[in-house]
């Protein structure tokens, strides 16, 4: 392995020197562990790095500066809703009353958080047109699993055990088919219609007494509203199946479309998308799930309940026997949910509707400005995101969407989602969100124009992009063939050994 | 709008460029019959009003009591540097590092997290994080089924009840079986996993076992016979899954040394706030031969085209966005920022500091044991523990409730989470860590002594019985 590059620092392990650091906690008495049997104790290590606070701080601050982030620039990553993460939400989640509350305290000590969670459930149910909401799932994918497990429990409760299939459009997020498998169902992939929407005929052909559920993302992953949704829902319910709504794209439709009212039986919500909780470099998020009347008995336990006297409490174990049970420990990602609650209270109904309106307006504006620059396969109005394609560019210049994305990095932008949805050739899925100014959007369009021009005049510049990033394109093949997944240099003789 | 930049002029300019007269036109695809009823929510609030509301809600929680509550979530001192660094927007407002050229900060910190957890557990492969200890345990158990192509796991009753319940939910969905290994009822090993029962359950040729799941320390705080349980599992061709608590691994034998194939656990004690149950950190780790079964993201070290060392997400063919219905799990969003918190915590506290945290907890717990026994609440089990243990308290729920009024949160009433286990009917699970003070222990013991005495004088049935 070669030495680290110009902007990359050493790892924590390379920074370690015996005797550095310390001073954070008092020392215990020498005999503190004398009562523990020797065979239960660790003989050696752990060989953790020893780093003093100044160097530790610089290590992480320098690393942070190698990241692209919303706080540093435009992040038009389609299907991820990289909107502004309000600072007051970070402050709120750190309030001692929220942050230091143990999850096993008696309900009477947790009235503030329980009230917040209960009110958030009500608000999300109202936004989704759902009967009730569980906040327990830790992420969107876990929300999907929770939803599909409830579907399974519903059918079984009716003695309807032969429903083995879940239908998923081919444009769906990968989590949908993976979820169906985890819940014990076979996924049937349904091709999209030529206009990007659901193919009703294909769905009708696949629907039957073996269908447990249909999972629909609306707006779809192409950024299009499924205008035939009513017809589809009718067909789904006609065969006794349930309709699952993947709420990943809820940011487009707040105040305009309530999935529960339209007839969806269950939906999940990604609060780290629509409700602005930070993505954290991959997580944490939270994936609340809303249900209609049919699935109400099967919600995971515990639910947050409001008593007649206005006090709040958690459901007790076994209180609701039809529940699918727990999907995780404790109540949920409460610290994340505080942020989502703050976001909703800051906006109110009119504000949330304006969020969706502005997100859709910005996406359509960007689409109109890029229409002559890249292919835009679907000409009708988009929702909060749209798919562009580099197919013509590739045919004309040999430049792939991957090259365009990497060149965008040089010009100061995070690339859009690329090669997704799988149904569009050389796809770029672009989602500007409602929190980016007109100047930012125009700057992005100008950058795209520059890149398309470069593709014709200097294609090598794009093939070899990025040039200005901390590192350039990576050797992913070697990473996979000879995986180096952890630092092992700390074990061995020269490592610091705790006294 | 609260955070958006658009002025009426901006919106008009965008509408003009698109060629629509109103924003409503953009929503024309929503069929008229499907349009939403009016959205009814409380009115919007300015940041000042919102901050005030949130402060009031936070103040309605009581976090001022002297607390001996653990049971899967632990109070620890967190060095100030941890949160200062977590507040770097470049970390917390970044997305999953799908574009490695501009995500080296996140990628390197995940690689370092994997390395730190590898060092604590002794495992070769550590996933970039799971939701929490419960889901990490469920995913670990599912791994054993995939790896052995068997459909049944055995889970010790000493594993946290929420983990067992979560595992059951996951296993039910996958049409797999999870059977419970009982605990020893009496004698010196009471409360620990019953190895005789385990051996018997493993011996059923009709129902081969994929994995055996045991926690150390157990939910009841006891140290388990991990080496023996692992040997029994392996002798039956099953894999051994250890559920561990990461701070304890500073002093306790690592899963690798007692032969675990998979280690999982809750990373919250490593610098992550209690936050009423989350976001926490699911630790999931395994030995190298299982690398293609482990779900969740993995970051590897590689080079860029100029030969510079760099980091990238790797072995992606396990993941849902590539493999769809054939993926190892549906997990996408994980707990990356919590993994970063754990890494910064470990780097700040260092190897000596982590040992001090674990050993100080053990010392305080020993003092707590003595004080509570003198107050009339002896330990429920005789075996060794690290920093958490169960005590017998007559009328535990009532005494616990009365202690609240005296400013003491006297651990967990075990019957509230294990209502079906008569051996835990009148018991509290109590815990001490390095932040527990001698004064707090005295306050707890003194209040408990008074309450037990009060119950005795009132002739409360449970207490009268206990004193006979």
Descriptive key words:
heterodimer, A: 499 residues, alpha/beta, Aspartate Aminotransferase, domain 2, Aspartate Aminotransferase, domain 1, 2 domains, three-stranded antiparallel β-sheet, 15 helices, 12 strands, 10% strand, globular, disordered N terminus, disordered C terminus, B: 468 residues, seven-stranded mixed β-sheet
Structure description:
The complex is a heterodimer of chains A (499) and B (468). Chain A is an alpha/beta fold and 499 residues long. Chain A is built from 15 helices and twelve strands. Chain A has helices at residues 53-64, 87-93, 96-99, 111-128, 140-157, 175-182, 200-206, 229-238, 259-262, 334-370, 391-397, 401-410, 438-457, 459-463, 476-481; strands at residues 132-134, 165-169, 186-190, 211-217, 242-247, 266-269, 289-291, 304-306, 312-314, 386-389, 417-418, 427-430. In chain A, helix 8 (229-238) links the parallel strand 4 and strand 5. The longest helix of chain A is centred in the C-terminal third of the chain and has 37 residues, at 334-370. The radius of gyration of chain A is 26 Å and the shape is globular. Residues 1-5 and 492-499 of chain A have low confidence and may be disordered. Chain B is α/β, with parallel strands linked by helices. Chain B has two domains: 81-344, 3-Layer(aba) Sandwich (Aspartate Aminotransferase, domain 2); 350-467, Alpha-Beta Complex (Aspartate Aminotransferase, domain 1). In chain B, 40% of the residues lie in helices and 13% in strands. Chain B has a seven-stranded mixed sheet with strand order 2-8-7-6-5-3-4, sandwiched between helices. The longest helix of chain B is centred in the C-terminal third of the chain and has 39 residues, at 336-374. Chain B has helices at residues 8-18, 47-60, 80-86, 89-92, 104-121, 133-148, 161-173, 195-202, 226-235, 320-323, 336-374, 396-405, 414-417, 438-458, 461-467; strands spanning 66-67, 125-126, 152-156, 177-181, 211-216, 239-244, 262-266, 282-286, 299-303, 309-313, 388-392, 408-409, 412-413, 427-431.
């Amino acid at each position: 392995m070669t030495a680290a590059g110009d902007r990359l620092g050493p790892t924590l392990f390379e920074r370690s020197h015996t005797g550095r650091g310390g001073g954070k906690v008092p020392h215990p008495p020498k005999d503190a562990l004398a009562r523990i049997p020797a065979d239960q104790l660790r003989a050696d290590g752990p060989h953790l790095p020893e780093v003093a606070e100044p160097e530790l701080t610089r290590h992480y601050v320098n690393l942070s500066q190698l990241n692209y982030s919303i706080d540093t620039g435009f992040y038009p990553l389609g299907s991820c809703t990289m909107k502004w993460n309000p600072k007051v939400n970070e402050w709120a989640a750190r309030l001692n009353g929220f942050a230091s509350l143990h999850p096993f305290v008696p309900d009477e000590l947790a009235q503030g958080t329980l009230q917040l969670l209960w009110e958030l459930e009500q608000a999300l149910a109202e936004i989704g047109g759902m009967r009730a909401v569980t906040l327990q799932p830790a992420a969107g994918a876990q929300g999907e699993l929770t939803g599909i497990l409830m579907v399974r429990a519903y059918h079984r409760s009716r003695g309807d055990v032969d429903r083995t299939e879940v239908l998923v459009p081919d444009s769906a997020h990968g989590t949908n088919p993976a979820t169906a498998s985890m819940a014990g169902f076979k996924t049937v992939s349904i091709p999209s219609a030529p206009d990007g929407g659901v193919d009703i005929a294909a769905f009708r052909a696949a629907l039957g007494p073996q269908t447990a559920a249909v999972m629909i993302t609306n707006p779809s992953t192409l950024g299009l509203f499924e205008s035939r949704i009513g017809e589809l829902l009718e067909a789904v319910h006609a065969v006794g199946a349930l309709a699952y709504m993947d709420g990943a794209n809820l940011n487009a439709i707040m105040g305009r479309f309530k999935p529960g009212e339209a007839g969806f039986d269950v939906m999940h919500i990604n609060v780290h998308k629509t409700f602005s909780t930070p993505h954290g470099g991959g997580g944490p998020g939270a994936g609340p799930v809303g249900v209609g009347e049919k699935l109400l008995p099967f919600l995971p336990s515990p639910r947050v309940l409001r008593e007649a006297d206005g006090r709040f409490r958690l459901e007790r174990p076994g209180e609701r026997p039809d529940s699918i049970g727990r999907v995780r420990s404790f109540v949920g990602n409460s610290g994340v949910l505080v942020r989502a609650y703050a976001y909703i209270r800051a906006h109110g109904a009119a504000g949330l509707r304006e969020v969706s309106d502005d997100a859709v307006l910005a996406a359509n504006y960007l689409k109109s400005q890029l229409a002559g620059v890249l292919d835009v396969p679907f000409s009708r109005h988009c929702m909060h995101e749209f798919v562009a394609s580099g197919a013509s560019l590739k045919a004309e210049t040999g430049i792939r969407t991957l090259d365009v994305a990497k060149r965008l990095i040089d010009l100061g932008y995070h690339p859009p989602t690329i090669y997704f949805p799988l149904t569009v050739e050389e796809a770029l899925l672009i989602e500007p969100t409602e929190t980016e100014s007109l100047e930012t959007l125009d700057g992005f369009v100008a950058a795209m124009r520059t890149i398309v021009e470069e593709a014709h005049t200097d294609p090598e510049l794009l093939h070899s992009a990025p040039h200005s990033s901390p590192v350039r394109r990576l050797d992913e093949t070697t990473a996979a063939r000879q995986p180096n997944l952890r630092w092992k240099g700390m074990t061995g003789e020269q490592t610091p050994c705790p006294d | 709008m609260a955070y958006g930049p658009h002025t009426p002029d901006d919106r008009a300019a965008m509408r003009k460029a698109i060629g629509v007269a109103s924003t409503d036109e953009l929503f024309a695809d929503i069929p008229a019959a499907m349009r939403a009823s009016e959205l009814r929510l409380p009115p919007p609030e300015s940041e000042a009003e919102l901050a005030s509301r949130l402060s009031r809600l936070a103040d309605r929680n009581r976090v001022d009591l002297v607390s001996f509550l653990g049971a899967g979530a632990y109070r620890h001192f967190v060095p100030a540097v941890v949160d200062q660094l977590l507040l770097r927007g470049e970390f917390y407002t970044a997305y999953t590092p799908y574009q490695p050229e501009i995500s080296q900060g996140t990628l390197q910190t995940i690689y370092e997290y994997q390395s730190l957890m590898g060092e604590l557990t002794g495992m070769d492969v550590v996933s970039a994080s799971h939701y929490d200890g419960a889901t990490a345990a469920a995913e670990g158990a599912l791994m054993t089924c995939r790896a052995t192509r068997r459909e049944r796991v055995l889970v010790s009753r000493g594993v946290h009840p929420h983990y067992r319940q979560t595992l059951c939910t996951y296993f039910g969905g996958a049409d797999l079986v999870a059977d419970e290994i009982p605990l020893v009822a009496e004698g010196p090993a009471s409360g620990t996993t019953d190895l005789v029962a385990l051996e018997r359950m493993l011996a059923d040729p009709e129902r081969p076992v994929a994995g055996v799941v045991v926690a150390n320390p157990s939910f009841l705080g006891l140290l388990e016979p991990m080496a023996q349980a692992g040997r029994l599992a392996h002798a039956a061709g099953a894999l051994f899954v250890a559920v561990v608590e990461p701070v304890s691994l500073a002093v306790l034998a690592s899963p690798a040394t007692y032969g675990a194939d998979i280690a999982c656990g809750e990373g919250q004690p490593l610098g992550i706030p209690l936050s009423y149950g989350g976001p926490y950190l699911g630790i999931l780790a395994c030995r190298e031969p299982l690398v293609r079964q482990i779900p969740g993201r993995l970051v590897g070290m590689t080079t860029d085209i100029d030969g510079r060392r760099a980091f990238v997400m790797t072995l992606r063919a396990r993941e849902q966005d590539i493999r769809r219905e054939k993926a190892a799990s549906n997990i996408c969003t994980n707990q990356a920022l919590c993994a970063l918190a754990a890494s910064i915590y470990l780097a700040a506290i260092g190897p000596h500091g982590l040992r001090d945290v674990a050993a100080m907890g053990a010392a305080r717990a020993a003092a707590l044991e003595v004080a509570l026994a003198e107050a009339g609440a002896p330990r429920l089990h005789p075996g060794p523990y690290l920093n958490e243990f169960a005590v017998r308290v007559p009328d535990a729920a009532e005494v616990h409730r009365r202690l609240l009024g005296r400013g003491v949160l006297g651990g967990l009433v075990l019957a509230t989470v294990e209502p079906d286990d008569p051996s835990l009917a009148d018991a509290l699970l109590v815990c001490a860590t390095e932040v527990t003070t001698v004064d707090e222990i005295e306050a707890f013991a003194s209040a408990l002594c008074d309450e037990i005495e009060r119950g005795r004088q009132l002739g409360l049935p449970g207490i009268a019985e206990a004193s006979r």
